[in-house]
């Protein structure tokens, strides 16, 4: 039926404490009613299991509910699992097998992988290899309309599961766990993923399985690591949950996003995966044929038929609006600090930032008065693009990559802040991760938008926004709906995660005397000259 609700229990390392776990299950059932099954991850058997286990193996005692366990994680317990493909170990206790998918009569799909990640070849019997993970992924992803599995059971944690998330306490998720399990979780998109082995309880905030604005919404994943049964610290080792099989759910209900949903911790893995072009379904068309209307909170698509913008012709050259008062950035204005200007084109100019994060922190500015990138006429936008290309080439020649950001909020003249970061300091993924992590900490929804999309596709003129662009073309975007920290972009770049100069987050603390600024501008102008198209055009 549609509401085929299953009530399940999951537990961490039993380590042979069968009386303890089954006693706890009986107590819970007496209080809360019957559960359908118990799923055990981590070490089911321990070094002193034999006496307790004999009573269950011989049938003298029986597990109170159907219990499904993963295989050995060390050579010591291999003898308890006579058949690698899975078998009944005792009445009501089943070994699932080395790897595979268990489908119950309710339609619930449970994917499982036994053992720990192999560190050598050939892999020992208690370990899994990249081949095991690939075969498990292939068997599921080959199914037509595969959306994910209901539950994934592994003993090790996935590497990096704590990225973009609440703290995992003493566990360092960047070092702990298995990269192969992370790859498996990224591909199988389980609604629940249980793991153990670390003697810790960690319920990660749910994470999304789609790229916002780039893919249709999908269900979220909840990762839960469980402690060892009967541990002295009273850490949680048993988790009760109810689940309706994905196959029985209303699609709209399945993809509902909880308020505390985070970015996917395995974004890097998803990006590195070979991009196979799946045939588009009837509901989906190429993203380039749509604009995204961010007036609605979800990325609702509106056709790019030109009606929204009056016509589908390129923007005609138009005079920029005049400033309502003195402007510090209109080049013709007496307020402009002209000693900071380092290059002047036909429609734009470059100037060193006052109180820059570094001596080569520059601004790309339109000569005329435009408030934001989405207000620019086509010829001004074209020259902005030329300056970006010239700066990329210039900074790369110095062993750096640039990060560009714009804050279209409480500012009246467009300023594109361009800050170079040493190539050997961090990757473009590190930069994106730093921005997304610090945005989440401040409840700012910073979304990745398609690399080749025009900013005008996600922001309409007059709408406040903040956006970041890397010199690879990758972009992050936030539609500002209320207050926004004015120094957010600088703070992220100055943070320990990137330039490690938190004392320079506020430009006012970094302002130099005019002669020093003029000397820095002369030095930059001289250095940039071979790359400056404005001197040749």
Question: How would you portray this structure in words?
Answer:
The chain is an alpha/beta fold. It folds into two domains: 264 residues, Metallo-dependent phosphatases (Purple Acid Phosphatase, chain A, domain 2), CATH 3.60.21.10; 194 residues, HIT-like (HIT family, subunit A, 2-Layer Sandwich), CATH 3.30.428.10. The protein has ten helices and 25 strands. The protein has an eight-stranded antiparallel β-sheet with strand order 18-19-20-22-21-24-25-23, sandwiched between helices. Strands 6, 7, 10, 11, 12, 13 and 14 form a seven-stranded mixed β-sheet that branches. A hairpin with a 5-residue loop joins strand 6 and strand 7. Helix 3 runs parallel beside helix 4. The longest helix is centred in the C-terminal third of the chain and has 20 residues. It is elongated. It starts with 5 loop residues before the first strand and ends in a 9-residue tail after the last helix. One of its GO terms (molecular function) is RNA lariat debranching enzyme activator activity. Pfam families: CwfJ_C_1 (PF04677), CwfJ_C_2 (PF04676). InterPro entries: Cwf19-like, Cwf19-like_C_dom-1, Cwf19-like_C_dom-2, HIT-like_sf. This is CWF19-like protein 1. Belongs to the CWF19 family.
Q: What would the keywords be for this entry?
A:
537 residues; alpha/beta; Purple Acid Phosphatase, chain A, domain 2; HIT family, subunit A; 2 domains; eight-stranded antiparallel sheet; seven-stranded mixed sheet; 10 helices; 25 strands; 21% helix; Cwf19-like_C_dom-2; CWF19-like protein 1; Cwf19-like; RNA lariat debranching enzyme activator activity; HIT-like_sf
């Amino acid at each position: 039926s549609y509401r085929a609700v299953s009530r399940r229990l999951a537990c961490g390392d039993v380590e042979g404490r069968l009386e303890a776990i089954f006693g706890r299950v009986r107590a819970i059932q007496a209080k809360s009613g019957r559960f359908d099954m118990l799923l055990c991850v981590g070490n089911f058997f321990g070094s002193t299991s034999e006496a307790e286990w004999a009573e269950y193996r011989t049938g003298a005692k029986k597990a109170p509910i159907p219990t499904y366990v993963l295989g050995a994680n060390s050579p010591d317990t291999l003898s308890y699992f006579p058949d690698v493909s899975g078998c009944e170990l005792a009445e009501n206790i089943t070994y699932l097998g080395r790897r595979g998918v268990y489908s119950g009569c309710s339609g619930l799909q449970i994917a499982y992988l036994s053992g720990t990640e192999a560190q050598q070849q050939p892999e020992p019997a208690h370990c899994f290899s990249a081949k095991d993970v690939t075969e498990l992924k292939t068997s599921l992803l080959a199914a037509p309309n595969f959306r994910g599995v209901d539950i994934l059971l592994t003993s090790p944690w996935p590497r990096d599961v704590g990225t973009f998330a609440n703290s995992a306490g003493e566990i360092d998720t960047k070092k702990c766990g298995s990269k192969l399990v992370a790859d498996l979780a990224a591909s199988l998109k389980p609604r629940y993923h249980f793991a153990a082995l670390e003697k810790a309880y960690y319920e990660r905030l749910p994470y999304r399985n789609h790229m916002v604005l780039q893919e249709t919404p999908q269900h979220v994943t909840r990762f839960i690591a469980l402690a060892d049964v009967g541990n002295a610290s009273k850490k949680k080792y048993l988790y009760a949950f109810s689940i309706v099989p994905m196959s029985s759910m209303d699609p709209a209900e399945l993809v509902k996003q909880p308020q505390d949903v985070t970015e996917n911790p395995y974004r890097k893995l998803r990006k590195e995966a070979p991009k196979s072009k799946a045939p588009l379904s009837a509901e989906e068309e190429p993203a380039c044929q749509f604009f995204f209307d961010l007036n609605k909170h979800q990325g609702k698509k509106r056709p790019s038929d030109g009606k929204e913008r009056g016509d589908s012709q390129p923007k005609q050259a138009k005079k920029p609006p005049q400033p309502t008062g003195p402007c510090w950035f209109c080049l013709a204005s007496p307020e402009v600090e002209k000693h900071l200007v380092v290059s002047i084109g036909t429609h734009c100019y470059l100037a060193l930032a006052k109180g820059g994060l570094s001596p080569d922190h520059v601004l790309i500015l339109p000569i005329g008065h435009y408030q934001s990138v989405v207000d620019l006429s086509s010829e001004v936008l074209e020259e902005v693009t030329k300056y970006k290309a010239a700066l990329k080439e210039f900074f790369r020649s110095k062993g750096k990559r640039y990060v560009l950001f714009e804050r279209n909020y409480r500012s009246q003249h467009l300023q594109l802040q361009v800050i170079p970061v040493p190539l050997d300091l961090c990757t473009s993924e590190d930069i994106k991760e730093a921005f997304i992590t610090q945005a989440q900490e401040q409840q700012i929804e910073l979304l990745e938008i398609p690399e080749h999309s025009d900013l005008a596709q996600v922001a309409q003129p007059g709408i406040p926004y903040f956006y970041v662009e890397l010199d690879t073309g990758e972009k992050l975007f936030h539609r500002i709906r209320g207050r926004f920290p004015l120094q957010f972009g600088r703070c992220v770049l100055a943070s320990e995660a990137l330039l490690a100069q938190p004392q320079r987050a506020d430009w006012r603390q970094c302002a130099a005397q005019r002669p020093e600024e003029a000397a820095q501008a002369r030095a930059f102008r001289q250095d940039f000259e071979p790359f400056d198209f404005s001197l040749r055009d």
